[in-house]
Structures are given as structure tokens and as C-alpha cells.
Design a protein that fits this description.
Blueprint (H helix, E strand, L loop, with lengths): L4 H10 L17 H11 L7 H7 L1 H5 L1 H4 L2 E6 L4 E6 L2 H9 L1 H9 L9 E6 L1
Parallel strand pairs: 2-3
Antiparallel strand pairs: 1-2
Length: 122
């Protein structure tokens, strides 16, 4: 069992060695496999993301008519989908079916947290 920093410094003084003045804590070492596993879990590497699920189902969500003229850009921090649309007319048309889009998106696995849609010219 390691000694506390105060005890280490007392022993260092008795042996005429310099004290440890660092405020950093010493942590026990961990093996690389567990660190990598924790990173995979934390960042959900290898799992389906809401963005990929929406991209797979894009035509069913938006509809055949609009699917090729708009694209999901991202899901922002507040849980809204940012969709790039080709022109203002299309943005207006999608605004009319926003409720239907949200119903379809929320019905997908891992997409229930999405709160709304933002249509962005692009």
C-alpha cells in the first residue's frame, strides 16, 4: 500500500531527498485492454448512432419526393435534427409535413430523444 504524500515527504526529508511538490495524484496502473474497452463503451464505437439509423431510413422518413433534394446534416446538442434543403420552396414544403417527419423519426430505435427539426438552406 502506498504512503500518503505527507508521509512520503517526511521520509524524503529524513533521507535528505527533495519533496514531491506536485499536486497530481498517483493512480494505479490499468491494463490497456480495459482502457480501450472503456473508450469503446463511452464513445459508443461500433454501435449504431441515431444519425446512421436515420440515414438508413431516410427515404421512408422524408418521402420519395423529397429524399434526393435534402439531407441530414447532424443532430445538434439540444436534440434537433438539422436538415439541409436545396431551396426555400422545398424548406416550406417540408415545414408542412414536419409533424409526420418527427413521428417517423421518433418511432426508430435510438431516436426517441430527437425533439424537433431545423431546415437549413444548403
Amino acid at each position: 500500500m502506498p504512503f500518503s504524500r505527507d508521509v512520503e515527504n517526511l521520509i524524503a526529508n529524513l533521507r535528505n531527498l527533495p519533496e514531491k511538490r506536485s499536486r497530481a495524484r498517483e493512480h494505479p496502473t490499468k491494463d490497456l485492454a480495459s482502457l480501450i474497452e472503456n473508450c469503446f463503451e463511452h464513445y459508443e464505437i461500433g454501435k449504431e448512432t441515431p444519425e446512421s439509423i436515420i440515414a438508413e431510413n431516410w427515404t421512408q422518413i422524408i418521402g420519395e419526393r423529397f429524399a434526393s433534394r435534402c439531407a441530414l446534416e447532424r443532430i445538434d446538442r439540444s436534440g434537433r435534427m438539422v436538415i439541409q434543403v436545396a431551396n426555400p420552396i422545398l424548406r416550406r414544403e417540408l415545414g408542412f409535413v414536419e409533424d409526420r417527419i418527427m413521428t417517423r423519426v421518433r418511432s426508430l430505435n435510438r431516436c426517441g430523444h430527437i425533439r424537433g427539426v431545423v431546415f437549413k438552406a444548403g
